[in-house]
Amino acid sequence: MSTEDRAKATAKNMEGKAQEALGNITGDPEDKAEGRAKQTEAEARHAVEDVKDKAKRAID
């Protein structure tokens, strides 16, 4: 498990939530979409780290 990678994914998720919220406040659909995309990217990064963790546990 890479703590650094998980931290980056969490930061990306928070950034995406903030951008989506800003888009909701300002009514900018582009900001909302970009915010959701960042959150999706963060979820994918977390999923990759989960797979790495499972593989490491299976090997150990």
How many whole angstroms does the radius of gyration measure?
14 Å
Mean pLDDT: 94
Sheet having the most strands: none
Q: Report the sheet-strand fraction.
A: under 5%
Residue stretches low in confidence (pLDDT < 50, at least 5 long) are none
Count of strand segments? 0
- Alpha plus pi helix count: 2
Q: Which structural class do you get from the secondary structure elements?
A: mainly alpha
Helix content: over 70%
Report the principal-axis shape: elongated
Number of domains: 1
Pattern of helices and strands: HH
Distance between the termini: 13 Å
A few lines on this structure:
The protein has 60 residues and is mainly α.
Please, could you describe this protein's structure?
The protein is mainly α and 60 residues long. The chain has one domain (3-59). It has two helices and no strands. The mean pLDDT is 94.
Tags for this model:
60 residues; mainly alpha; 92% helix; single chain
SSE topology sketch:
Blueprint: H1 3-26, H2 29-59
Helix pairs in contact: 1-2
